[in-house]
Design a protein that fits this description.
- Helix content is 49%, strand content 18%.
- By secondary structure, the protein is α+β, with helices and mostly antiparallel strands.
- The strands form two sheets. Strands 5-4-3-8-7-6 form a six-stranded antiparallel sheet, sandwiched between helices. The protein has a two-stranded antiparallel sheet with strand order 1-2.
- The radius of gyration is 24 Å and the shape is elongated.
- The N and C termini lie far apart (72 Å).
């Protein structure tokens, strides 16, 4: 019997936080669905919560930035933190799932490994990879990070930004020399990004890893902003100078296909 009472007590203790979380999410969902804000009394009625409970939970959500109260209108609105969390999903809205078929075709066409990456905190982060069949190939596990300024995907993402914005990002990065080919001078990097914009694809010429070359292009969102980047990477011996333009055409075409599949638009088509 004592054991039964102990289990019931544990369940009761666990039910409190779970119920509070569930009620908080109910409030958050109601506010999100309203669009033009919701009053406290209306929220309590919609969620079936006592007004005092709803008020307490709303104040807690407000402290965390998930909701905001407009004093003049007496209404609750979605807060910045909720947008931040939702934005994290949008940045990764089925990128890998939608891109994988295109990535597989690109690997077959190029014969080299294909990567998909996003920007996070000043770095390029690999989301997924399709390995080529060669014994010697470039491998990067999902979650692998690389500096924006010296990786193919990173430079593709930077070059897809407006010039002033890209240069501002570079100024905030620690530009360290990783290999003998790494560009660390602001003027050199600015020229490299300008060349990337001109031809439509970025080139990592053993700048991040000795013996490895990478050709990359940006995938854009519905506003023409860089959403992620696609790259072809392989040993420099298999990607000589004469092959870079050929791979550039392939990666630009594939990036455009993924852009369209994600509902995006290339910058030059905006407006």
């Amino acid at each position: 019997m004592d054991g039964d009472h102990g289990q019931q007590g544990t369940r009761a203790e666990a039910a409190g936080p779970v119920q509070a979380l569930s009620r908080s999410l109910d409030l958050l969902e109601c506010i999100a669905a309203a669009g033009d804000g919701v009053g406290s009394a209306e929220l309590a009625a919609l969620t079936g919560q006592p007004p005092s409970t709803a008020h307490r939970l709303l104040k807690n959500l407000e402290q965390r930035g998930y909701v905001a109260f407009d004093e003049d209108r007496g209404r609750w609105f979605i807060g910045v933190q909720a947008f931040t969390v939702g934005g994290a999903f949008l940045r990764r809205r089925n990128h890998a799932v939608i891109a994988r078929p295109v990535m597989r075709r690109l690997m077959e066409d190029s014969g080299e490994t294909v990567n998909l990456a996003v920007e996070d905190k000043g770095e390029a982060v690999i989301l997924t990879q399709v390995e080529c069949r060669e014994m010697m190939r470039a491998l990067s596990q999902p979650g692998t990070r690389a500096p924006l300024y010296c990786s193919g995907v990173g430079k593709a993402l930077l070059a897809a930004l407006p010039e002033e914005e890209a240069l501002a990002v570079l100024k905030g990065l620690p530009l360290k020399r990783i290999t003998g080919r790494t560009l660390t001078g602001p003027d050199d990097l600015a020229r490299d990004l300008a060349e990337t914009r001109r031809r439509g694809y970025a080139v990592d010429d053993e700048e991040h890893s000795v013996g490895l070359r990478c050709v990359a292009a940006a995938v854009h969102d519905e506003h023409g902003r860089p959403l992620c980047a696609l790259s072809i990477s392989g040993p420099a011996v298999r990607i000589p100078d004469g092959r870079i333009a050929e791979l550039g055409v392939l990666v630009v075409g594939a990036a455009g296909e993924i852009t369209r599949a994600l509902g995006g638009v290339a910058p030059q088509r905006r407006g």
